[in-house]
Write a structure and sequence with these properties.
The complex is a heterodimer of chains A (114) and B (291).
Chain A lengths: L1 E4 H4 L3 E2 L2 H9 L7 E5 L5 E2 L1 H16 L3 E5 L3 H15 L9 E2 L5 H8 L3
Parallel strand pairs in A: 1-3, 2-4, 3-5
Helix pairs in contact in A: 2-3, 3-4
Chain B lengths: L1 E3 L8 H14 L8 E3 L8 H13 L4 E3 L6 H4 L14 H6 L10 E4 L4 H22 L3 H21 L4 E9 L4 E8 L3 H7 L13 H10 L11 H13 L2 E12 L2 E19 L15
Helix pairs in contact in B: 5-6, 6-9
Classes of the chains: A alpha/beta (114), B alpha/beta (291).
Chain lengths: 114, 291
């Protein structure tokens, strides 16, 4: 059994997928039980939450069990949303209005309003 | 040839974009003997400083003149930026800015090695803490701010194929807003889709406009489980914080929900997030915008 205290290894705010990739890539394949300790981890990005979920899934397929410990409400909620989005991959706030300006003059007229 | 640049301070995003547009329109890309004189550019807001820094990184044959020691440019490390791994004690140097309304231009390393990742996270985190303190951001707003900064900067690490990215910030207490810019001089959104070789079909993404729209729609070149960071950050900023979102790549310009042809091309990508600082909503929760 192997425990990784994320706040010591990475920090209290985990902002980058590479932080988690780095942790998972160093795991020994002989470990069958790993605990990720989130004590003092105050914030993770959604991308980081996805990297954690993906990493756990890959390890699980190799017979490695990963537990999450001391996870705060916000981080837990993020992970829950990532797992839910894997089942129903729907992106909502994606509206874009394509606007074509005839020429630079029209474009600049628009830019002066923003 | 010497190009003298001058910008009369105007806090409107559109005016700053017009400045960038006009600079790119007149820049002699075919001339390898070019200097840019910044002496008359007495003040450089984040959008313009990040634009020039990325531009000069890309076109590194361009000579820079008109920046004197002790000037505002030198103070914010314009245009070369603060590279943490090249500083003796970057954390201590950052503390100098702890009571100022600006930070130095951060030129972060996109390397995914453990040590450089930790350093990149460290400098971005410390920057965010300073911004929080100076702008007196409540913790609910700060979490949203961290979300946007982490998602947008990590996209540069993951997709730009550039060695480094840029991070620039300024707080305007009398105008009541915070400007934060993140940029890179990498391959840009369209080339990222063109470089893709996998099972998803991105063959219809043939223009910068389609590429930027595809990023907003969440079409990721890495996996269809990804692609949530940009549009959720945009929505959080506009609907949650009442802010403004600008994204440029190639000739594609996105302002909030409007996508249009900028009629000149930038290299890599450039994002501005503008957060009003006098209307922090105590009921705002960044989790309302996470999908």
């Amino acid at each position: 059994m192997y425990t990784i205290k994320l706040s010591n290894t990475v920090g209290n705010h985990i902002l980058s997928r590479a932080s988690i990739e780095s942790i998972f890539s160093k795991l020994d394949s002989s470990d069958v039980q790993i605990t990720l300790d989130f004590n003092d981890v105050q914030f993770v990005s959604r991308a980081v939450a996805h990297e954690i979920v993906s990493g756990i899934s890959t390890l699980s397929a190799s017979g490695v069990n990963v537990d999450l410990l001391n996870i705060n409400f916000e981080v837990n909620d993020l992970i829950r949303k990532v797992v839910a989005s894997q089942k129903h991959n729907v992106k909502k706030a994606t509206f874009v209005e394509n606007v074509a300006f005839r020429d630079e003059k029209e474009l600049k007229r628009f830019l002066k309003t923003i | 040839m010497i190009i003298k640049v001058k910008f009369r301070w105007d806090n409107r995003v559109g005016t700053q974009l017009i400045f960038i547009h006009d600079f790119l329109k007149k820049f002699p890309f075919e001339d390898q003997d070019v200097s840019i004189d910044f002496a008359a550019l007495s003040y450089v807001p984040p959008l313009i400083s990040t634009f020039f820094s990325s531009f000069l990184e890309k076109f590194n044959y361009v000579k820079i003149i008109g920046i004197s020691e002790g000037s505002y440019h030198a103070n914010i490390r314009f245009p070369t930026g603060l590279k943490p791994e090249n500083e003796d004690d970057w954390e201590l140097k950052m503390k100098y800015y702890a009571t100022k309304n600006y930070l130095p231009l951060i030129h972060f390393n996109n390397s995914k090695t453990t040590s450089l990742t930790k350093q990149r996270e460290g400098v971005i985190s410390q920057s965010c803490r300073i911004i929080r303190q100076v702008a007196d951001m409540p913790s609910n707003i700060y979490n949203g701010f961290m979300y946007m900064v982490s998602e947008l900067s990590d996209n540069i690490v993951e997709h730009s194929k550039s060695e480094r990215g840029w991070f620039s910030y300024q707080y305007y207490p009398s105008d009541n807003f915070i400007d934060l810019c993140i940029s890179d001089s990498g391959i840009g959104l369209l080339q990222a889709y063109k470089n893709y070789s996998g099972t998803q079909d991105f063959s219809s993404i043939t223009t910068h406009l389609k590429a930027l729209e595809s990023v907003i729609k969440g079409f990721s070149t890495k996996s269809n489980e990804r692609g949530f960071g940009v549009h959720t950050s945009r929505e959080m900023l506009i609907k949650g914080l009442g802010g403004k979102f600008v994204m440029l790549s190639g000739n594609a310009l996105l302002f909030n929900y409007t996508l249009t042809d900028f009629k000149v091309e930038i290299f890599g990508s450039l994002i501005l997030i503008r957060i009003p600082s006098n209307t922090f909503d105590k009921n705002f929760s960044y989790q309302d915008f996470v999908e």
